[in-house]
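Example 3.2
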Amino acid sequence: MRGGGGGYLRAFTLVELLVVIAIIGILIALLLPAVQAAREAARRMQCTNNLKQISLALHTFHDAHKRLPGFAWDPLWTTGFSTGADNDVPGRRLDGTDVYSVHVSLLPFIEQGALRELIASQLSLGLANVGTGNGRDWVPEPGIRNWDDSTLLRDGNGDRVVKNPFTTRVAAFVCPSDTQNGRGGENEGKPTNYAVCLGDAVPAWDWNMRGAFRHYRLRGKTGLNSMSDGTSNTVVFSELTIGRGGADMNVKTGVVNGDSAFRIPYGTSYSTFVTPLDCTSHRSSDGVLKLDGNITAAGFWGNKGHRWGDSRLPYTSFATFVPPNSVSCRTNDEQWAGMAASSYHTGGVNVGLGDGSVNFASDSISVGNQALLLGQDRGYNGSPHDYTGPSTYGVWGALGSAAGGDQGSL
């Protein structure tokens, strides 16, 4: 091509253009993983910060109430909103308040005071309406049991005027790395990625726990001084990946479900309790939950972490009897569940310690002898949750127990 000055202007050939496009494509391909890694680093930082705030909120609660919140039956809710008008039982709790979680008690200390007051105001209305037969309809329940469209209070025009507070999504309770953190419709409970540690024994809702938290009515109150292994050596919170619903066979999000899947943990006979291996053996070699002679796809359950306000075990708890990102198990009634701490962060989970600090626990952390019941390595032959000695389950188990006489550290 001749230019105006008599010279020639050089243009790109088609081959050169394709080469440039190919180079740009290669650069984008090289940069994309770095961009994704940077985004995940930011999400992980936010997740860590959320866990830090919740762990510090526990200390603020302790300063205000001189105790730790009960993981169930906390008197803020069961005693603070009780009545003698229900079946002539003095001091009877309002239905549903017994399952309010630690998360509910911590609301004022994570800048959610307005949400806490909304719950309290609805409970007060419940007390005022107990005698009318409609009292329970006023009481917000984490499971949204009486809060569908047919029972929500409506005004004279038929418009709904009361919304269950537990349908509120609390940003501080979810990790941005979990794509399921937006689960829950208008009339459903909202999820959480942060769970309380109930110790290193396979937990049941009304059993003694070896962790920092207790069922308040049955086991009484605990405080920071109950962590005799040291607050810096005791895990109080960790992460929990949110289930995808239905029959979920993913190890991170699904739960082995049902009595036929493993030995039933109830009873006083030592042989009826569950070892960690009874649960983790349901992981197949390809990393999903295992189908075998005792369990089909219908035996997996995917609703863990779905209710931040519910203390029943699959929703807001975990135990250090199995490794992080391992298999979780439960029976059919939500009263027994051994949830594994789990996250989408590479290689492990964030944990909040009793001193308010946050650390990282690797998937490969020592978990001792998974084939034994708790205490069996030391000759103990009673109920594992009543055992008071050092953990059988290595460093991870020692971190979960608050007063086992062993001091695991990260």
